Amino acid sequence: MTIRGLALAMMLTTLATTGTALAQGFGASPSDRVFQVTWNAATTKRGQPAVEGYVANQTGYSYRFIVLAVDGTDAAGQPLPTTTFYINGEVAAGDRLYFKNAVPQAGANYRVTVRSYERFGGGAGM
């Protein structure tokens, strides 16, 4: 085998294995590893439909400026408008933070996800 052929074979092998490694992480959101979000349908004091729950920090770092997105469907399965809101507060390592926010209309099902966040400070206890 010539040097050019050997170089081509090495390059193709590297590209093939790199593509496989990238495909293994497909669909995994970084926030899924950082936070666990639990929620329930609720109502506000004024009787508006709302979503309430907790954002649990599963890491050794502290986070703030957490923005959640609420996607829902009505009883017929039609999508409702997405609602995004900011959670006021900081969540320390291994702790959880409560949230409650009104949504435009009541839904049959909801999905709450972390849209964005900021890590601050050092590790646990800092």
Q: Please, could you describe this protein's structure?
A:
The protein has 126 residues and is α+β, with helices and mostly antiparallel strands. The protein has a single domain (30-120), classed as Immunoglobulin-like (Sandwich), CATH 2.60.40. It has two helices and six strands. It has helices at 3-24, 30-34; strands spanning 35-43, 49-57, 62-73, 83-91, 96-102, 109-120. The strands form two sheets. Strands 1-2-5 form a three-stranded antiparallel β-sheet. It is flat and about 80 Å long. It starts with a helix and ends in a 6-residue tail after the last strand. Mean pLDDT is 83; it is low at 15-27.
Keywords:
3-stranded antiparallel sheet, Immunoglobulin-like, 2 helices, flat, about 130 residues, about 45% strand, alpha+beta
